[in-house]
Amino acid sequence: MLVIEAARMANGAAPADAFLEELIRKEDFGRIADVLIRFEEFARTGTLDVPLQLNSLGNDIWEIKAVDVRLPFYYANSHSRCRAVRLTNGFLKNGRECPPRYKRLAMRVRGEDELL
After folding, report:
1. Chain mean position to CA 35
2. What's residue 79's pLDDT?
3. What is the pTM assigned to this prediction?
4. CA-CA to 82 of 20 to 30 Å: which in 46, 76, 90, 95?
5. Can you tell which superkingdom this protein's organism belongs to (predicted)?
6. Is 15 within 8 Å of 107 (Cβ atoms)?
7. Range(s) of the domain holding residue 74
């Protein structure tokens, strides 16, 4: 079993939560459904199809891929029996590669989250 959580920044913000809340606010039900399907499978099996649904961004940052939705995350050190991943942020992908600013944000959120 895998637990999926939102990483927090030092100021308490959770960019992944904010991204998902924006999809809900816009009533973007197709994207929300795609994300929930990936979350359920990832939590249940601990993996997704590589590279179709799961991809390494480098520096121990990965991304869950649901059509054009991208949710960067990292594997958290957990002392419980459940493994955990912490979502760092989210974005809609337009191009072929992950924009560098989203990789930098993911690394920044991870760094701050690990210090909390």
Report:
1. 10
2. 64
3. 0.94
4. 90
5. Bacteria
6. no
7. 2-115
